[in-house]
Amino acid sequence: MVAPKNRLAVSSDALDAVDLGLLGLLRSNSRLSNAALAASVGIAASTCLERVRSLVSRGVIRRFTVDVDPAALGLGVQALISINIHSGARSQITPFATRIRELPEVVQFFFVGGNEDFLVHVAVQDTAGLRRFVVDNLSADPVVAATRTSIIFDHVAPPL
Fold it and tell me: For a disulfide at 60, which of 28, 40, 55, 134, Cβ 3.0-4.6 Å?
Protein backbone atom coordinates (compact mmCIF):
# COMPACT_ATOMS: atom_id res chain seq x y z
CA MET A 1 0.00 0.00 0.00
CA VAL A 2 1.32 3.42 -0.97
CA ALA A 3 1.27 6.02 1.79
CA PRO A 4 -0.87 9.06 0.99
CA LYS A 5 0.98 12.21 0.12
CA ASN A 6 1.35 14.70 2.91
CA ARG A 7 -0.70 17.71 1.88
CA LEU A 8 1.61 19.93 3.92
CA ALA A 9 4.75 18.75 2.17
CA VAL A 10 6.86 21.42 0.57
CA SER A 11 6.22 21.55 -3.16
CA SER A 12 8.92 21.86 -5.78
CA ASP A 13 7.71 25.44 -6.25
CA ALA A 14 8.56 26.37 -2.65
CA LEU A 15 10.98 29.20 -2.10
CA ASP A 16 14.31 28.30 -0.56
CA ALA A 17 16.88 30.50 1.17
CA VAL A 18 18.51 31.45 -2.16
CA ASP A 19 15.17 32.51 -3.67
CA LEU A 20 14.35 34.55 -0.57
CA GLY A 21 17.79 36.15 -0.69
CA LEU A 22 17.31 37.10 -4.35
CA LEU A 23 13.87 38.54 -3.62
CA GLY A 24 15.20 40.63 -0.74
CA LEU A 25 18.00 42.03 -2.87
CA LEU A 26 15.71 42.78 -5.80
CA ARG A 27 13.12 44.45 -3.55
CA SER A 28 15.75 46.84 -2.24
CA ASN A 29 17.37 47.45 -5.64
CA SER A 30 15.86 45.89 -8.76
CA ARG A 31 18.69 47.33 -10.87
CA LEU A 32 21.35 45.03 -9.41
CA SER A 33 23.20 43.19 -12.12
CA ASN A 34 22.88 39.44 -12.39
CA ALA A 35 26.56 39.13 -11.45
CA ALA A 36 26.03 41.21 -8.28
CA LEU A 37 22.94 39.20 -7.35
CA ALA A 38 24.76 35.91 -7.86
CA ALA A 39 27.76 37.02 -5.80
CA SER A 40 25.53 38.28 -2.99
CA VAL A 41 23.75 34.95 -2.57
CA GLY A 42 26.76 32.78 -3.38
CA ILE A 43 25.67 31.09 -6.61
CA ALA A 44 26.90 31.06 -10.20
CA ALA A 45 25.64 33.81 -12.49
CA SER A 46 23.99 31.28 -14.82
CA THR A 47 22.18 29.69 -11.87
CA CYS A 48 21.12 33.12 -10.64
CA LEU A 49 19.67 34.02 -14.03
CA GLU A 50 17.66 30.80 -14.11
CA ARG A 51 16.45 31.38 -10.53
CA VAL A 52 15.21 34.91 -11.31
CA ARG A 53 13.56 33.73 -14.54
CA SER A 54 11.84 30.96 -12.57
CA LEU A 55 10.59 33.46 -9.97
CA VAL A 56 9.14 35.57 -12.78
CA SER A 57 7.55 32.65 -14.65
CA ARG A 58 6.01 31.28 -11.43
CA GLY A 59 4.47 34.67 -10.67
CA VAL A 60 6.48 35.23 -7.50
CA ILE A 61 7.98 38.34 -9.11
CA ARG A 62 5.05 40.12 -10.70
CA ARG A 63 6.93 43.07 -12.18
CA PHE A 64 10.04 45.19 -11.97
CA THR A 65 9.28 48.80 -11.22
CA VAL A 66 10.69 52.10 -10.05
CA ASP A 67 9.78 53.89 -6.81
CA VAL A 68 9.31 57.57 -7.61
CA ASP A 69 9.14 60.22 -4.89
CA PRO A 70 5.80 62.00 -5.47
CA ALA A 71 7.22 65.27 -4.07
CA ALA A 72 9.82 65.28 -6.87
CA LEU A 73 6.88 65.40 -9.31
CA GLY A 74 5.25 68.32 -7.49
CA LEU A 75 2.84 66.05 -5.60
CA GLY A 76 3.50 67.33 -2.08
CA VAL A 77 0.42 65.91 -0.35
CA GLN A 78 -0.29 62.23 0.13
CA ALA A 79 -3.31 60.74 1.86
CA LEU A 80 -5.00 57.47 2.68
CA ILE A 81 -8.71 57.51 1.97
CA SER A 82 -11.00 54.82 3.31
CA ILE A 83 -14.17 54.30 1.31
CA ASN A 84 -17.43 52.65 2.28
CA ILE A 85 -19.85 51.54 -0.44
CA HIS A 86 -23.63 51.62 0.03
CA SER A 87 -24.86 48.14 0.94
CA GLY A 88 -27.32 48.25 -1.98
CA ALA A 89 -24.53 48.99 -4.44
CA ARG A 90 -22.51 45.80 -4.04
CA SER A 91 -23.01 44.96 -7.72
CA GLN A 92 -21.11 48.16 -8.56
CA ILE A 93 -17.94 47.25 -6.63
CA THR A 94 -15.98 46.01 -9.66
CA PRO A 95 -16.79 48.94 -11.99
CA PHE A 96 -16.16 51.41 -9.15
CA ALA A 97 -12.82 49.81 -8.27
CA THR A 98 -11.73 49.75 -11.91
CA ARG A 99 -12.57 53.43 -12.36
CA ILE A 100 -10.84 54.60 -9.18
CA ARG A 101 -7.71 52.49 -9.74
CA GLU A 102 -7.16 54.18 -13.10
CA LEU A 103 -7.19 57.76 -11.76
CA PRO A 104 -3.75 59.41 -12.05
CA GLU A 105 -3.72 60.51 -8.40
CA VAL A 106 -3.97 56.91 -7.15
CA VAL A 107 -0.66 55.47 -5.95
CA GLN A 108 -2.07 52.27 -4.44
CA PHE A 109 -5.53 50.76 -4.25
CA PHE A 110 -6.72 48.10 -1.81
CA PHE A 111 -10.00 46.17 -1.63
CA VAL A 112 -10.13 45.34 2.08
CA GLY A 113 -12.19 43.52 4.65
CA GLY A 114 -13.28 45.15 7.87
CA ASN A 115 -15.01 48.46 8.45
CA GLU A 116 -14.08 49.88 5.05
CA ASP A 117 -14.50 48.47 1.57
CA PHE A 118 -11.52 50.20 -0.05
CA LEU A 119 -8.36 51.98 1.02
CA VAL A 120 -6.81 54.33 -1.51
CA HIS A 121 -3.37 55.93 -1.31
CA VAL A 122 -3.31 59.15 -3.34
CA ALA A 123 -0.67 61.77 -4.15
CA VAL A 124 -1.78 65.27 -5.15
CA GLN A 125 -0.21 68.69 -5.52
CA ASP A 126 -1.81 70.30 -2.48
CA THR A 127 -4.79 70.14 -0.12
CA ALA A 128 -7.01 71.79 -2.74
CA GLY A 129 -6.13 68.92 -5.09
CA LEU A 130 -6.97 66.43 -2.37
CA ARG A 131 -10.33 68.11 -1.81
CA ARG A 132 -11.05 68.02 -5.56
CA PHE A 133 -10.14 64.34 -5.72
CA VAL A 134 -12.45 63.42 -2.85
CA VAL A 135 -15.37 65.62 -3.95
CA ASP A 136 -15.20 64.91 -7.69
CA ASN A 137 -14.33 61.22 -7.63
CA LEU A 138 -15.72 59.90 -4.38
CA SER A 139 -18.34 62.07 -2.67
CA ALA A 140 -20.14 62.75 -5.95
CA ASP A 141 -20.37 59.03 -6.75
CA PRO A 142 -23.75 57.53 -5.77
CA VAL A 143 -22.05 54.22 -5.00
CA VAL A 144 -20.04 55.79 -2.15
CA ALA A 145 -21.67 55.88 1.29
CA ALA A 146 -18.78 57.53 3.18
CA THR A 147 -15.11 58.41 3.03
CA ARG A 148 -12.50 59.17 5.64
CA THR A 149 -9.29 60.95 4.65
CA SER A 150 -6.02 60.78 6.57
CA ILE A 151 -3.08 62.94 5.50
CA ILE A 152 0.26 61.11 5.38
CA PHE A 153 2.90 63.16 7.21
CA ASP A 154 5.76 60.79 6.51
CA HIS A 155 6.23 57.44 4.84
CA VAL A 156 9.21 55.29 5.65
CA ALA A 157 9.49 51.93 3.94
CA PRO A 158 10.52 49.14 6.32
CA PRO A 159 13.94 47.59 5.83
CA LEU A 160 13.88 44.61 3.51
Answer: 55
Torsion 129-134-135-141 (CA) sign: positive
Dump pLDDT digits (tens) for 92-126. Answer: 999 999 999 999 999 999 999 999 999 999 999 99
CB count in 10 Å sphere of residue 103? 13
Q: Which residues, other chains included, contact 100 with Cβ-Cβ below 8 Å and sequence gap of 6+?
A: 83, 106, 109, 118, 120, 137, 138
How big, in percent rounded to 5, are the helix, strand and coil portions of the chain?
40, 20, 40
Do 25 and 40 touch, CB atoms closer than 8 A? yes
Contact yes or no for 111/54 (Cβ under 8 A): no
The per-residue b/e assignment along 83-92, b for 16 or more CB within 10 angstroms, e otherwise, is bebeeeeeeb
Please provide residue 149's backbone torsions phi and psi, each rounded to the nearest 5 degrees.
-110, 130
